[in-house]
Amino acid sequence: MSNYLEIGEKNTMAPTGKLKLIDRVTAINWNRLQDEKDLEVWDRLVGNFWLPEKVPVSNDIQSWHTLNEAERLMTTRVFTGLTLLDTIQGTVGAVSLIPDALTPHEEAVYTNIAFMESVHAKSYSSIFSTLISTKEIDEAFAWSESNPQLQRKAEIVLDYYRGDDPLKRKVASTMLESFLFYSGFYAPMYWSSRAKLTNTADLIRLIIRDEAVHGYYIGYKYQKGLQQVTTAEQEELKAYTFELLFELYENEVEYTDALYGELGLSEDVKAFLRYNANKALMNLGYEALFPKEDTAVNPAILAALSPNADENHDFFSGSGSSYVIGKAVATQDDDWDF
Amino acid sequence: MGALVYFSSVSDNTHRFVQRLGLPDLGIPVHRIPLRPADGFLTVDEPYVLMAPTYGGGNEGGAVPRQVRRFLGDVDNRSLIRGVIAAGNTNFGAAYCIAGDIISAKCQVPYLYAFELLGTAEDAERVRDGLGRFWQRQSLISA
């Protein structure tokens, strides 16, 4: 008998209410892979490993004091919200995926993801302790504990993590990794585009990079699982995914208004939300939902996220008289033969 | 008319984008680089545009999938590349779609287009139309 769930088999809660973990453990053999993606993603996660101590957030202290009170309040609240989500993903979310794993390697990747989410949660604390007084931190945490939209967001996701459907759990998890963080990630990108809190932004970019791999991997495992269920179940899961996205999106819109309304940034943030909602759907293998005109992210925000995104890599829409040759990039790959 | 050569991992993200382009209807042949060395080696004998995903990191090592590097390592294959299209994710910051930069610089061919993940409907339309026009122009130049 296999220690691992067969596809379609459900991992249910033990009567104690605790998530039932596997009954027996087999020593993990990385030389016998059932899914090559596991090793590929493991290597990528390990290669991307970082710790917040490496980012000199204290260089932002001066910049922090150039923000006005409303701006500081928004930023502090954003980080408490992100801390909450990363705490959920580190201690509940990624861990709840482990019992559903089909291979020991998949389990190992989830443990890596869970650990990195805890690193992220700790990173926000290091930003807090560097920039903000204890009193302000306490007030911001009190706000996040009483903000209905943030609590609702946590509740929706936690419900699915506690539920009994492994595929729905992966949908909820991908939504969290690829969509729900972005109402918060907007703020440091906004400051970075104005040359403020740039070290904090550097730290957040490392988190954003990690979440991309997490969302990609969990979404990929969802799609693998989807191949094993009936067409009717596939249809149901697709409908469920879009329903959940709408439910979360409506809540995110309200959350965005609560955080950014006073600063007049809400509409800008919402375009960023829709852009990332589309990417969450793509990670799950579905086509983008929101049309192009609704996902036009402010170019300054996009450039803060990725300096390459605004470069002219659209030869097709140009006159055709000139084109771009890529900049020579030093690669560390020794297996180019030329 | 030239071809499209592409690589897609087992996630099939790039594969699905290619399927949405309907290139065979335009008379553009499509060739997929095999997933694993054991699956054989692709040799092409016509000019082509290469499409590849960027393997994300932040460090550039491994940004171009190994199978693509092997494919381009073949002198005959490399002599026929005319352009590159890359997929990626802006979450990787400066490494976004960097596979396109690397291949373009290595092979000295234009970097034609970049898109995210599975690509949007607009991306598919742009690439489909763009490739049609690209090959038309190429045939005028070489004629």
From TrEMBL, chain B:
InterPro entries: Flavoprotein-like_sf, RNR_Ib_NrdI_bac, RNR_NrdI. SUPFAM superfamilies: Flavoproteins. Probably involved in ribonucleotide reductase function. Belongs to the NrdI family. This is Protein NrdI.
